[in-house]
Amino acid sequence: MVTVNGEPLAEAAGKNLLTFLQQREAPIDNIVVELNGTIIHRPEYEQTLIKPNDKLELISFVGGGR
């Protein structure tokens, strides 16, 4: 079981980060991915495989203000 932002998510294991993010329709250009406490940079998404018991944190940036 993979944990994504504190929630268990069984179907994430076995996918690479890019595929996982695309399937979630995540804003890839405006997101930071932390995998087991390590920030994964965008060029590494495709070759980074999500394994059982991994912990993912997805942080999206939103513009705003004045």
From TrEMBL:
UniProt cross-references to NCBIfam families, sorted A to Z: thiS
Pfam family, one: ThiS
Superkingdom, taxonomy of origin: Bacteria
Gene coding for it: thiS
Protein name: Thiamine biosynthesis protein ThiS
